[in-house]
């Protein structure tokens, strides 16, 4: 039977149960005010059944009375000794107690009158002995990839040195082990890696320099003391996801757990104690829903963890409504809320990874100054397989050279304004190595929108005198956005507002995120991302293209409007003023011109007049280049002026030869004998004719052919035969009024050939002798046009 | 600042295609012992060489280094001690 608020009804005979303050903390006798609601989860029937957890550490005392019942050999291995028995090495200092202590927190058996009760006291617990010897990349890889189809949760309470000057993380084999585990572990659901966040408070370390807690594959867990205060050792970090209890100051109560040599201790502390607690809570959630993927688990932690009474001066609410801090991530984990979520959880959509372009703009980081670099992320909107709209993890890959790395502090601000501290000053970090492609990770932008301006700020605050001649340099940085392209939470995942029956209130952080969104139809040019109004200028993202209007608003369009060209991806940019269409904004990138301008085909510029060496083509749009011999021309081969050294021969330019010769390209050769000048050999290449010859269609003839007339208009000696008007059969001058004879079916009338359909002749008439046309002629009536037409033959006959 | 020295061990991680037998054959050819595959990392093997220095600030050199010339050896890394702290 479950009664809300009556956590005390569960009694265990384990001697330390009553003093396990972090298990049933909200009974008013303690000063802790909020609870991880572990008993609440138990009351719902979840105690970790069928879930397998392993502790990567210095071994596990598998025959400890409080561990032996739940010990699982298949979740255990000795990497240091390369055998299957993970028993720790015993020595006088009991230095190898760590693993056994962590294991007890997770799955110490309940009600067996030994020591404590584990958070998942029916889960299977194993241990990997891998810290008690040389830890190498290979040792870590072996540990992280132990039996991934059988083990569900790996808990690690170790990491690189917390000396405030180390930058280290998983090397290539360990990284591969992570990726394999995420991709294929738990039959494709992904292994769950829980990691203790940084622990180097006194040496002012920052856990962003710990590659394990900065990995998106690990759930980085912080600690808070019973009072909710920050433990002295805790490091702030943007990659921390959530927090569990541990101990802070010496006067704070600590964690109680199993200890080496079959003993029990109440002095376990540090984030080492917090990670296994989180592993135990996650085990309860996995029992509630064994099909949760590794990302589902992180989403559920984000949605259920609460700020509660945890003290942090940097609590902020991100744009999705989640409260988050660098000390505690999204707050104290809540086991009961997690199992409730898990029970009805719908798997989040497939993860998309968007690797934005690298910003290689080198910036000098001057001491006492800061550099600011803004990157406009699209969230890979143009690639549906990589499109990220709703964020999960954000990774920033940064390369910086710097004479003293510890003087750097780095911040990242999301488009929604959420600011994450990726790195704090580290007083003891004197390294000159800088950062080489180091991956900083923040969880603070969880569920925010990815697209927009991301601002990277790097501050250089020298902690001591430094050589200013070699300032730091931001070499390059790039964003890797992880998330989904569709809303990750189905309605079923939303909190049932009314039904909330939990023992402590759960804020619904998503409640007002976006509640004032426009809900009407979007403009057709909006992509399916959405909009905040009906017009094309209200789109969150454009389907095709967009351009900026005069007041800098973005207007979505199907195609780039006139006077614009398609710049990068979907953006339309303005062409040069005279261009109608272009391929770029420069004046020499025009494709067509506005009216009144002509396109110079050679320079691709728009001009009002064709320059020398160009002619305006037939359709009056383009200035085309004349043939190379022409200085000016009216057609490609029709020169009107020649280049220097050439002379115009008709409409062509050729090298000047003496009269009667032409330039064959090699030498001056004689023209045809009838040609006075010519542009080539042969009779029809004449330009002018010799005496007694007339130029007729490039040929020199002695008399004009039928259909040609001798043109007297040229004053000079050269005469030409020109073609008569098409209406004449023969003519004696230009135009259609100088015909001298007409083609059949036409009659000549005062030098004009007109269509004659009736043309009688005296001889044809049947009338009595002296027929009609004869009478017309006799009576001199041919002047009359009608009669003339009627009796044209008679009228034109002599006599 | 004090320069952090690397400590090389007499263990190697090697990537060899061709399966366990092939890996063992190549290992023994150069005096290594094939401890076995590294967890679930396919084609990655743990080689140990008893005749080289167990801990050294210098990476190991010798005839055994010619193993990297084997065509089937795609990748090899002498293991370095990493400093790991319990939290």
Gyration radius from CA atoms of chain A, angstroms: 47 Å
What percentage of the residues of chain B does DSSP assign to strands (E)?
35-45%
* Class based on secondary structure composition and strand pairing of chain B: mainly beta
Largest interface: A-B, 47 and 23 residues
Overview of the structural elements:
The complex is a heterodimer of chains A (about 800) and B (about 90). Chain A is built from ten helices and 47 strands. Chain A is elongated and about 155 Å long. In chain A, β44 (about 730) and β45 (about 740) form a beta hairpin. In chain A, α3 runs parallel beside α4. Mean pLDDT of chain A is about 85; it is low at about 1-10, about 495-515 and about 765-770. Chain A has a seven-stranded parallel sheet. In chain A, strands 13, 14, 16, 19 and 21 form a five-stranded antiparallel sheet that branches. Helix content of chain A is about 10%, strand content about 25%. With about 800 residues, chain A is an alpha+beta fold. Chain B has one helix at about 20-30, and strands spanning about 10-15, 35-40, 40-50, 55, 75-80, 85. Chain B is globular and about 40 Å long. In chain B, strands 1, 2, 3, 4 and 5 form a five-stranded antiparallel sheet that branches. In chain B, about 15% of the residues lie in helices and about 40% in strands. In chain B, a hairpin with a 2-residue loop joins β2 (about 35-40) and β3. With about 90 residues, chain B is mainly β. Chain B has one helix and six strands. The interface of A and B includes residues 82, 141, 144, 148 and 271 of A.
């Amino acid at each position: 039977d479950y009664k809300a608020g009556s956590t005390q009804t569960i009694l265990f005979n384990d001697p330390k149960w009553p003093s396990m303050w972090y298990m049933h903390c909200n009974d008013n006798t303690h000063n802790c005010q909020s609870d991880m609601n572990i008993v609440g989860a138990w009351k719902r029937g979840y105690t970790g059944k069928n879930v397998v957890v392993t502790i990567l550490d210095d071994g596990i005392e598998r025959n400890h009375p409080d561990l032996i019942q739940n010990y699982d050999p298949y979740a255990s291995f000795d990497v240091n000794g390369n055998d299957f028995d993970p028993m720790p090495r015993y020595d006088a200092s009991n230095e190898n107690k760590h693993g056994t202590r962590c294991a007890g927190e997770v799955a110490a058996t309940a009600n067996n009158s030994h020591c404590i009760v584990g958070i998942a006291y029916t889960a299977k617990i194993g241990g990997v002995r891998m810290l008690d010897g040389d830890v190498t990349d290979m040792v870590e890889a072996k540990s992280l990839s132990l039996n991934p189809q059988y083990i569900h949760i790996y808990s690690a309470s170790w990491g690189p040195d917390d000396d405030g000057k180390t930058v280290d993380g998983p090397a290539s084999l360990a990284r591969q082990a992570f990726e394999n585990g995420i991709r294929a572990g738990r039959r494709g659901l992904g292994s769950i890696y829980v990691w203790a966040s940084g622990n180097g408070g006194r040496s002012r370390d920052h856990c962003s320099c710990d590659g394990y807690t900065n990995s998106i594959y690990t759930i980085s867990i912080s600690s808070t003391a019973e009072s909710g205060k920050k433990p002295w050792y805790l490091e702030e970090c943007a990659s921390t996801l959530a927090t569990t209890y541990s101990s802070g100051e010496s006067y704070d109560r600590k964690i109680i757990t199993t200890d080496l040599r079959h003993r029990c201790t109440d002095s376990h502390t540090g984030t080492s104690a917090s990670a296994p607690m989180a592993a135990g809570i996650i085990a309860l959630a996995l029992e509630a829903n064994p099909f949760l993927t590794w990302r589902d688990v992180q989403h559920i932690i984000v949605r259920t963890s609460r700020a509660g009474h945890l003290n942090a001066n940097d609590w902020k609410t991100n744009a999705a409504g989640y409260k988050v801090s660098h000390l505690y991530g999204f707050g104290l984990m809540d086991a009961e809320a997690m199992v409730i979520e898990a029970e009805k959880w719908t798997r989040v959509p497939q993860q998309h990874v968007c690797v934005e372009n690298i910003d290689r703009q080198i910036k000098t980081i001057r001491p006492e100054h800061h550099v600011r670099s803004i990157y406009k992320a699209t969230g890979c909107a143009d690639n549906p397989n990589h499109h990220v709209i709703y964020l999960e993890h954000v990774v920033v890959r940064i390369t910086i050279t710097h004479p003293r790395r510890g003087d750097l502090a780095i911040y990242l601000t999301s488009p929604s304004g959420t600011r994450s501290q990726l790195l704090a000053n580290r007083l003891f970090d004197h390294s000159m190595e800088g950062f080489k492609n180091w991956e900083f990770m923040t969880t603070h932008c969880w569920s925010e929108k990815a697209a927009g301006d991301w601002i990277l700020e790097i501050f250089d605050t020298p902690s001591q005198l430094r050589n200013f001649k070699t300032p730091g340099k931001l070499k390059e940085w790039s964003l890797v956005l992880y998330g989904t392209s569709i809303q990750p939470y189905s309605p079923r995942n939303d909190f049932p507002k009314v039904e909330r029956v939990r023992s402590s209130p759960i804020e619904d952080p998503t409640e007002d995120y976006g509640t004032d969104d426009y809900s009407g139809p979007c403009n057709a040019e909006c992509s399916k991302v959405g909009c905040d109004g009906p017009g094309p200028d209200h789109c969150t993202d454009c389907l095709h293209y967009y351009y900026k209007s005069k007041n800098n608003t973005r207007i979505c369009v199907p195609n780039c409007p006139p006077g614009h060209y398609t710049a990068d991806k979907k953006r339309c940019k303005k062409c040069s003023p005279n261009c109608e269409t272009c391929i770029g904004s420069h004046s020499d990138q025009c494709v067509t011109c506005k009216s009144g301008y002509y396109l110079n085909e050679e320079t691709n510029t728009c001009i009002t007049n064709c320059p020398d060496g160009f002619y305006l083509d037939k359709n009056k749009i383009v200035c085309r280049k004349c043939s190379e011999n022409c200085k000016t021309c009216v057609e490609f081969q029709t020169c009107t002026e020649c280049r220097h050294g050439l002379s115009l021969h008709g409409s062509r330019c050729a090298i000047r030869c003496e009269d009667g010769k032409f330039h064959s390209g090699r030498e001056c050769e004689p023209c045809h004998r009838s040609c006075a000048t010519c542009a080539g050999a042969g009779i029809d290449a004449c330009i002018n004719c010799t005496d007694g010859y007339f130029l007729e269609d490039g040929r020199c003839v002695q008399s004009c052919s039928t259909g040609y007339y001798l043109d007297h208009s040229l004053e000079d000696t050269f005469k030409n035969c020109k073609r008569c008007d098409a209406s004449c059969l023969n003519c004696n001058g230009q135009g259609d009024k100088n015909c001298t004879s007409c083609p059949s079916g036409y009659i000549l009338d005062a030098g004009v050939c007109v269509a004659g359909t009736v043309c009688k002749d005296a001889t044809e008439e049947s009338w009595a002798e002296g027929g009609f046309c004869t009478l017309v002629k006799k009576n001199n009536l041919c002047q009359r046009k009608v009669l003339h037409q009627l009796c044209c033959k008679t009228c034109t006959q002599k006599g | 600042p004090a320069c952090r020295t690397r400590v090389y061990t007499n263990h190697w991680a090697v990537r060899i295609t061709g399966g366990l037998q092939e890996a063992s054959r190549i290992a023994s050819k150069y005096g290594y012992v094939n401890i076995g595959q590294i967890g679930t990392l396919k084609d990655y093997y743990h080689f140990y060489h008893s005749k080289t220095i167990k801990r050294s600030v210098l990476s190991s050199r010798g005839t055994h280094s010619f193993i990297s010339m084997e065509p089937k050896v795609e990748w090899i890394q002498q293991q370095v001690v990493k400093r790991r702290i319990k939290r």
